[in-house]
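Backbone Fold Data
Goal — fold tokens
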Amino acid sequence: EREGVGLVVGNRGFFPARLCEEGRAILLKVLECQGLDVVTLDPRTTPHGSVETHAHARACAELFKANRERIDGILVSLPNFGDERGVADSIRLAGLEVPVLVHAFPDSPRRMDIEHRRDSFCGKMSCCNNLRQYGIRYSLTARHTVDPESPEFAEDLARFAAVCRVVRGLRKARFGQVGARPAAFLTVRYSEKILERCGISVESLDLSEA
């Protein structure tokens, strides 16, 4: 079974919107090559299939909720600066509570004119600041900005997919416990209630019964 990723492409209107169209196409190709199942907005639903306004965020959230069973993690990608509130609202309104990875495209020093400048470097900081304000936990790529077709990003995706597998596997896990912990080893004590709040159940068996 393939891991599923919900893709949020951030956009901000006064930066070149065509970068979102190009970036989205590159990401879809890369994610498919990595064997990931992708759920993302259709370009017929929002401009270039990106998220900028609250209305776009609601459309993205509804799509993600409708495909809840397919999505193990959310990838946020910023081909340009991106709208941080649109990204954060998309994730919060979807309410999936899955791992989030934030990615930003790199600028080319030779293409910093108004037609090509991304400024995703700063946009990523703004996006992450809003995610923190919203209480949404996220992971970062190894490099602040990274070419999605690079080996470095392939490693980021592989690591993120592994995180998604672990979270999915633990979400409804049942742990078996044989006997209580030794009295002298406080280092191995834990809270069953905290595990239960995370969807993990503990079934205990007294050592004498074993």
